[in-house]
Amino acid sequence: MANIKLTLVVACALIDADKRVLIAQRPQGKSLAGLWEFPGGKLEPGERPEATLIRELHEEIGIVVNEACLAPLTFASHTYDDFHLLMPLYICRRWEGEVAAREGQKLAWVRANKLRDYKMPPADIPLIPHLIDLLM
Ligand SMILES: Nc1nc2c([nH]c(=O)n2[C@@H]2O[C@H](COP(=O)(O)OP(=O)(O)OP(=O)(O)O)[C@@H](O)[C@H]2O)c(=O)[nH]1
User: Fold this and answer.
1) From atom 4 of ligand 1, which residue's Cα is the shortest distance away?
2) What is the C-alpha to C-alpha distance for residues 127 and 91, in angstroms, rounded to an integer?
3) Is 121 annotated among the ligand-binding residues?
4) 6-135: which CATH number, 3.90.79.10, 1.10.3720.10, 1.10.10.650, 1.10.10.10?
5) Which of 78, 104, 101, 105 is nearest to 89 (CA)?
6) Where does Mg(2+) bind (predicted)?
7) Domain extents for the chain?
8) So what's the pLDDT on residue 28?
9) Ligand 1 binding pocket mutation candidate from 78, 85, 118 (most atoms within 8 A of CB)
10) pLDDT of the chain along its 136 residues, tens only?
């Protein structure tokens, strides 16, 4: 069997007081451009997943998250053409600062039962029912 590269990416569903979830649109020029995804990203060497998420949430949307406010919800496991993505999904309901697009991406606050109206990467589709169960 061919070797497949395993890529670990951490992602977070931020949830606001109205139980809406934050998604961000991948900018042009990146892989999967135009698709809506949960904020997050790849681990840097030696980095813990929670630290990655705290760093990415600050870089991408300018908020400060306390590690105690990150709770695991589920994970995605999906084979793309050139790698296999393993992506833990955390939820977070508390943060400091205002959510703002720091990298020119579009942001949307969406009810869980409307997430299917936004085109998401294939890895994300099985995550949606978990958010619906949690939030609807
Ligand atoms: N942050 C995030 N990444 C996701 C999601 N779903 C999903 O398939 N991914 C994939 O996980 C990887 C995340 O990488 P990244 O955001 O740190 O990296 P990047 O776009 O700079 O790198 P890339 O252009 O090489 O993919 C991408 O391949 C992205 O397509 C998601 O909901 N959130």
Assistant:
1) 37
2) 12
3) no
4) 3.90.79.10
5) 78
6) 40, 60
7) 6-135
8) 87
9) 85
10) 678 999 999 999 999 999 999 999 998 888 889 999 999 999 999 999 999 999 999 999 999 999 999 999 999 999 999 999 999 999 999 999 999 999 989 999 999 999 999 999 999 999 999 999 999 9
Instruction: Tell me, using a 6 A CB cutoff, whether residue 119 lines ligand 1.
Output: no
Cα-to-centroid distance, 41 and ligand 1 (Å): 6
Query: Would you list the DSSP string of the chain?
Result: -----EEEEEEEEEB-TTSEEEEEEPPTTSTTTT-EE-SEEEPPTT--HHHHHHHHHHHHH--B--GGGEEEEEEEEEE-SS-EEEEEEEEE---BS----SSS--EEEEEGGGGGGS---GGGGGGHHHHHHHH-
* Rounded distance from Cα 76 to ligand 1 centre (Å): 12
What interface predicted TM-score (ipTM) does this complex get? 0.95
